[in-house]
Design brief:
- The chain is α/β, with parallel strands linked by helices.
- Helices cover 37% and strands 21% of the residues.
- The strands form four sheets. A six-stranded parallel sheet has the order 3-2-1-4-5-6. A six-stranded mixed sheet has the order 7-8-9-10-12-11, with helices on both faces. It has a three-stranded mixed sheet with strand order 15-16-17.
- The longest helix has 15 residues.
């Protein structure tokens, strides 16, 4: 038999890549591992009849003649399929790999290896489906689009390429449902997730790595909380740190690692791979069966500090993606958001275009006049100074000093892609000893 497998804690990119691989290898059976991501479990609860699969426990390793691996090539992340992988290593079966992660010491031996630097493994397979003139229906197109959205942060992660955008466009042309995608891309937090987020916000240890602020957090839990990754994504967005590395001890024998990076200079995937996990530059994870959480965090912290980032462009300093507000939002809503995030201002965006900046001083003036129920549009600053993504940090510093502004939107081809603040530039100038201060 031919089987298609992917990594542990399969996410939407892994599931979508497996389904796309089945279109290219129509005789193959998708075999899922022991653990799936929460969002994938919920999706399959409604769609399992459309995308049938088997589980690792039902697999006869001796019956396999062709192993197709998607969204991973590290043997350490295929523990549920160890016996089949061992047969592949001995050359007893054919092995095909579709992946977008960088090489590692424990990569699979492969007869056919398709690895390219794109944001999503699904993109590689969609391109091959297009070349082979294979078609998809609305449900298939929606799942494949979910895979690309999830692994590229809706085309905002640093590793995203133009090819990901083109593949997504191909799927939208074939009926991918934005309404269904929004349901799974932004699921409501459970009570357990909300409680964990609140606990982690108070437990973050923030350190300077080069000129960037990086946060570490560790917690030992009696049992896993569904949606670890979603919690860390929200934590990263709320705090605005360049990267967040979270380590959870789960029960007596497991350590879960989740990392998110907002900076092109911090490769979360490579750093998490150093402790036995994996992923890509913007997002990474690992379910480890070794050591304890304190040891894993110490190793991860050492790896992060061993590779301090050096800023060469504004893109290396900026925070991304950017938290924005609509011009119709009330001043009170914006004030609440800023108090949670600790930021001193936020860009105002309408129909994708940057139209203004609302700052804490603007809010303070409105509060004194009792106008907090009014929309942002009447109080924002319309005169916007911005900087290009490829310009130097020195150019950003020059603009801030000349115009006496505390933050500069960063634009690429007219599109808002990040924001750089006084604090970012001070950390670049003064290094480890500088205080964060207000942005």
């Amino acid at each position: 038999m031919e089987i298609i497998v992917t990594h542990d804690m399969a996410d939407f990119d892994a599931l979508a890549a497996a389904v796309a691989a089945q279109k290219l290898h129509p005789g193959a059976v998708i075999v899922l591992g022991r653990r799936l991501g929460k969002e994938v479990r919920e999706y399959l609860g409604l769609h399992k009849d459309r995308f049938p699969s088997s589980f690792y426990s039902e697999l006869d390793p001796e019956a396999v003649r062709h192993l197709i691996v998607v969204d991973v090539r590290r043997k350490g992340r295929l523990a549920d399929f160890r016996r089949v992988v061992e047969r592949g290593e001995r050359g007893e079966i054919e092995v095909t790999v579709y992946d977008h992660h960088p090489a590692a010491d424990d990569d699979l031996r492969a007869d056919r290896l398709y690895v390219e630097a794109v944001g999503s493994a699904t993109t590689l397979l969609v391109e091959r489906m297009d070349a082979a003139a294979l078609e998809v229906d609305e449900v298939e197109a929606t799942l494949l689009a979910l895979g690309i959205h999830a692994d590229t942060g809706s085309l905002t992660y640093a590793g995203t390429s133009a090819r990901d955008a083109r593949a997504l466009g191909w799927l939208l042309d074939r009926g991918a449902s934005l309404r269904v995608m929004s349901r799974y891309l932004e699921p409501p937090f459970s009570a357990a997730q909300r409680a964990l987020l609140a606990e982690l916000l108070g437990a973050l240890e923030v350190e300077r790595v080069g000129h960037l602020q990086v946060a570490f957090v560790r917690r030992d839990l009696a049992h896993a909380v569904d949606g670890f990754a979603d919690v860390i994504t929200e934590l990263t967005d709320l705090t605005g740190h360049a990267a967040v590395f979270a380590v959870f001890g789960v029960g007596s024998d497991r350590v879960q690692v989740v990392a998110r990076s907002r900076s092109a200079l911090i490769d979360a995937g490579a750093l998490v791979a150093s402790v036995g996990g994996g992923g890509h530059a913007g997002a990474a994870s690992g379910a480890l069966r070794r050591g304890d959480s304190a040891t894993v965090l110490a190793e991860l912290r050492a790896a992060v500090h061993a590779h301090p980032p050096l800023a060469r462009r504004v893109a290396d300093l900026m925070s991304s993606p950017v938290r924005t507000v609509r011009p119709t939002a009330t001043l009170r809503e914006v004030a609440t958001s800023l108090s949670i995030s600790g930021h001193t201002g936020v860009p105002v965006v309408k129909d994708g275009a940057l139209i203004g900046i609302i700052s804490r001083s603007d809010l303070e003036r409105a509060d004194r006049d009792g106008r907090m129920a009014l929309p942002v549009s009447g109080f924002m600053t319309h005169k916007i100074y911005s900087v290009g993504v490829d310009e130097t940090p020195e150019r950003a510093l020059e603009l801030m000093q000349k115009h006496d502004v505390g933050r500069l939107p960063v634009l690429e081809a007219g599109r808002l892609v990040g924001i750089v603040t006084r604090s970012d530039l001070r950390r670049m100038l003064y290094g480890e000893g500088s205080r964060p201060g207000p942005g």
